[in-house]
Amino acid sequence: MANIDKLNITDNFALEARRLINQIMKNNELYDRTCLSYFGVTTSQGRTVLSFPVRGSVNMNELSDSVGVDNSTMTRMIDHLVDKGLVYRKADIKDRRLVRVGLTLSGKKLHRELKKALHTFYRDSLDEIRETERLMIIKSLERLSNSINKGLESCCAKLCDKVSKD
Predict the structure, then answer these.
(1) For helices 43-51 and 60-67, angle between their N-to-C axes, nearest 10 degrees
(2) Which band of pLDDT confidence, cut at 50, 70 and 90, is reported for residue 165?
(3) 118 and 138 fall within a common domain
(4) Among 50, 78, 122, 124, which is most exposed with the fewest C-beta within 10 angstroms?
(5) How far apart, in whole angstroms, are the C-alpha atoms of residue 67 and residue 74?
(6) List of residues 6+ apart from 37 with CB closer than 8 A
(7) Which domain holds residue 135?
(8) Which of 49, 30, 57, 28 is nearest to 113 (CA)?
(9) How confident is the model at residue 6 (pLDDT cuts 50, 70, 90)?
(10) If you ran DSSP here, which 8-state letter would residue 68 be given?
(11) Share of the chain above pLDDT 70, in %
(12) Could you report the per-residue pLDDT of 80-120, keeping only the tens digit for each?
């Protein structure tokens, strides 16, 4: 009986944690879409602009890895950002086969504005949380993130084992 109760408690916790995580993600995506459309870019374009260093340039592989998309998707994204005058493209000085991309002056301005808008949104949204609760919340979120990362590693290993056996 005690094992069943513990299982129900764990199941309920997992379901509630998933519900809350999904709600936070949904709210975050809604804010991103609203905020970024105000600045005239899609969510993907805004996230890409925010992934650039403010100074200098990066190669396409670095940018693709940073944003978490494949190179062909990033190439199309950069095409749109170049058309909007937010990003420039140039051949790498040392290896002309590589393409480097960076923010134009307009892109740098957008980067600053987006960063400020996102910071202000989260600062204002979370301001009502008492200082005495903040460290506990951060530690709880870190714990949650670490547990989910471990679960992903375990899940992926199990899936890989299953695929290799089939």
Answers:
(1) 120
(2) low
(3) no
(4) 124
(5) 9
(6) none
(7) 131-166
(8) 49
(9) low
(10) T
(11) 89
(12) 999 999 999 988 788 877 888 999 999 999 999 999 998 99
- Asked if residue 138 has pLDDT above 70, the reply is yes
Could you tell me the two tokens for 117? 């808008």
Question: Does residue 43 sit in the same domain as residue 76?
Answer: yes
What residues pair up with 89 in beta bridges, in sequence order? 101
* Alpha-carbon distances of 37 from 50, 106, 108, 119, rounded to whole Å: 15, 16, 17, 17
Q: Report the C-alpha gap between 67 and 45 in whole angstroms.
A: 10
Pick the more confident residue, 95 or 58.
Answer: 58
Residue 44: name the closest of 83, 84, 80 by CA: 80
- Alpha-carbon distance 63 to 44, whole Å? 13
Tokens of 78: 């950069």
Question: What DSSP assignment string belongs to 2-40?
Answer: HHHHHHHHHHHHHHHHHHHHHHHHHHHHHHHHHHHHHTT
Domain shared by 66 and 145, yes or no: no
